[in-house]
Write a structure and sequence with these properties.
The complex is a heterodimer of chains A (about 450) and B (about 110).
Chain A (H helix, E strand, L loop, with lengths): L1 H18 L6 H17 L6 E3 L4 E3 L1 H24 L7 H19 L4 H19 L6 H32 L4 H8 L8 H16 L7 H8 L2 H26 L5 H23 L4 H17 L9 H25 L14 H4 L1 H15 L5 H15 L3 H27 L12 H19 L2 H4 L4
Antiparallel strand pairs in A: 1-2
Chain B lengths: L1 H7 L1 H21 L3 H26 L3 H31 L13
Helix pairs in contact in B: 2-3, 3-4
The chains are: A mainly alpha (about 450), B mainly alpha (about 110).
């Protein structure tokens, strides 16, 4: 609970720093503050339990995911100082919005009442609308912001309608009350209509296949750092929230619900990976790659007992690989209008270190052993197989093989083609630090998966 | 209030809200003017607010009405951001027709 208050306070602090002319110190102070909050969050002083009339419900699940979100946000904020160098006067706004986004994310995994969940998802989404359209002189950024705003608020409306129907069926917003009512004998069967609306809205936010059409455009048009935020932080937040909803609000998983999840997961993996093959823009390709990873993560909903650890591990592996990927992409695409794969030609010869990091993060997302991406897929598919969804596992492995094709397109461009023009060789120090740190975490998780995997039992 | 609700019936409130919600959805899907799309989203959210209040009276429980304040505040914040995006589009394009936004394709 105090974590959320501290994060909101930190956001206000970084807005105030602008008034007191503290722009230079803003990024270091925010990072130190977030590290302190992370330390508090995992320390025993952070009491588990319910707070404020069950508004907040803090348990091991929410603490673990909150820590993951804070780590990802620290990386993203560390990158922002260099990324927004040309708009140095606005750095406090960008940092503050990212911190508020984190506050929304924390509310979304530690809610005990659906109103808290709704506020969390809205704080997260509104921050992202602003960030997506933040490059206001660029028409592509405007268009991305507009599309994201329309689709996002459309999804919010659907989620709100779902919440309303759940309220109508149970007469309460409190998760504990709703849990009791739905586990008693007779409650209105149209409760499930509300669940369906809620799940559809969340699938919009995660960008899985029938509801994915906004993602490629928005990812391509937004400023690169915003794309990094959306694809790493926002996706795992929405996934964790959907997981929590399906555990607490769905009393018995019917066969038809499971079939819907299976179909959405299969469609996401196949469509995401096949569409990614024919993309020439790196950000657009990453959007489709994200759609396929969303399909993988959705499979967690089929194995609800003891699957929180699997989801946490997968989300961590995906997020750190995405951070390392974007730390390099930010450097390569700086000042360019377009983010085509040609920009990476000859990158392996001119910048061997960053090229190695990029290769490793791509291999991690493709699922090559030693890197954590492999073990994430391994644990997930193992659990799904034990639950008896053999067809799903076969499709997942085939789509994983397809994905190697487009990840290697970048790697081949880096190592086999010659560069047409030289990139300036002064790599920003912070990009290198973030890329290498993310890669170290990635490999560390691959070597010792139990650190994260066993956190949630 | 309870008497009025009993006379009219909760199901009529549900029908009305669902119809309004669908009007909002079709507005977002079929109209191409950005401002009208915003208005349609507002209709969707307000249809839900109406249903919240009706359920709140039906259950004799104030939580639903309090939730409406949250959702109204959130809708206002959302539209503020949306209009800001719209202004920056208008500055670049001198038009707010959604069909002009076709730079991102693939």
């Amino acid at each position: 609970m105090n974590t959320l208050i501290a994060i909101s306070g930190l956001g206000i602090l970084s807005l105030l720093a602008e008034i007191f002319n503290g722009r230079k110190a803003i990024v270091p102070i925010t990072i130190i503050g977030l590290l302190a909050i992370l330390g508090y969050n995992i320390s025993p002083y952070n009491h588990l339990g319910t707070f404020y009339n069950n508004m907040m419900f803090v348990d091991k699940f929410s603490v673990a995911f909150t820590s993951l979100f804070i780590v990802v946000t620290i990386f993203l904020i560390a990158l922002s100082h260099e990324f927004y160098k040309e708009q140095a006067t606005k750095i406090s706004d960008y940092v503050a919005i990212k911190v508020f986004l984190l506050a929304g994310a924390v509310a979304m995994v530690s809610f005990g009442n659906l109103s808290m969940f709704f506020l969390g998802i809205e704080v997260l989404s509104i921050s992202l609308y602003v960030l997506a359209a933040s490059n206001r002189l660029n028409l592509r950024s405007n268009e991305a912001g507009m599309k994201y705003f329309l689709m996002g608020s459309f999804a919010s409306g659907i989620i709100l309608f779902g919440i309303c129907l759940l309220y109508g069926a149970t007469g309460s917003f409190d998760l504990m009350n709703m849990y009791q009512i739905t586990h008693s004998v007779n409650y209105p069967q149209w409760y499930y209509i509300g669940i369906i609306f809620l799940v559809i809205g969340m699938l919009f936010k995660i960008a899985t296949v029938p509801f994915h059409f906004w993602a490629p455009d928005v990812y391509e048009g937004s400023p690169a750092l915003t794309t990094a935020t959306m694809s790493t932080l926002a996706k795992i937040v929405a996934m964790a929230a959907l997981y929590k909803i399906s555990i607490l609000l769905i009393p018995t998983q019917t066969y038809s619900f499971q079939m819907i999840i299976v179909c959405v997961a299969i469609a996401s993996m196949i469509v995401g990976n096949i569409m990614a093959l024919r993309q020439n823009n790196v950000k657009r390709m990453f959007a489709f790659s994200g759609i396929s990873h969303a399909g993988f993560m959705l499979m967690v909903l089929l194995i609800l007992n003891n699957s929180a650890g699997v989801l946490l591990y997968y989300a961590t592996a995906y997020a750190v690989a995405g951070i390392a990927f974007f730390a390099v992409v930010l450097y390569v695409t700086k000042g360019k209008d377009n983010e085509t794969i040609d920009l990476f030609n000859g990158f392996g010869k001119t910048h061997p270190l960053l090229a190695a990091v990029l290769t490793a993060s791509l291999l991690s997302m493709a699922g090559i052993p030693i890197l954590s991406g492999f073990f994430a897929k391994f644990f997930l598919l193992n659990q799904v197989l034990l639950s008896g969804w053999t067809v799903l596992v076969i499709v997942a492995i085939i789509s994983s093989i397809i994905s190697v094709g487009y990840y290697f397109k970048i790697i081949l461009a880096m190592y086999t083609k010659d560069s047409e023009k030289d990139l300036p060789n002064n790599i920003p120090f912070i990009y290198q630090v973030v890329a290498i740190l993310a890669l170290v975490i990635n490999i560390g998780l691959g070597l010792y998966p139990s650190i994260v995997y066993n956190l949630l039992g | 209030m309870q008497n009025i609700l009993q006379q009219i019936g909760i199901e009529n409130y549900i029908y009305l809200s669902v119809i309004l919600f669908c009007i909002g959805i079709f507005g977002v899907l079929y109209r191409r003017n950005a401002i009208i799309m915003f208005m349609s989203i507002e209709i969707m959210l307000n249809a839900v607010n109406l249903l919240f209040v009706a359920f709140s009276t039906f259950h004799q429980d104030a939580q639903g009405q309090v939730f409406v304040f949250f959702s109204m505040a959130v809708a206002a914040a959302e539209v503020a951001v949306g209009l800001a995006i719209l202004v920056s589009i208008f500055r670049n394009l001198s038009s707010i027709d959604i069909d002009n936004l076709k730079n991102l394709k693939g």
